[in-house]
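Give me structure tokens for this 100-residue protein.
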Amino acid sequence: EVVTCLPEYYKWNQWFFLKFLENGLAYRKKQNVWWCPNDQTVLANEQVVDGCCERCGAEVYQRQMEQWFFRITKYADELLEYPGVVWPESGKIMQRNWIG
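Here you go.
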């Protein structure tokens, strides 16, 4: 079980994030996002169904917000072909589309 509030967990996440940041792999920029005014949160594309929030049913809209991004496209082949993970073809397609 993963418990994200435990120091043993989040200290490593913070360490990895700082390494990404130090190496220019994490950056911020403005990006259009799906926004749910009822839940006051950003939604992934998959959480928007027929223009509505899948959680509460409220109509959502796009707004621009500053977001964190990771420069991972130059590692795309390595990430997709990592021997420790066996991807089904549908998973490879989804990951390839996400990675870039």
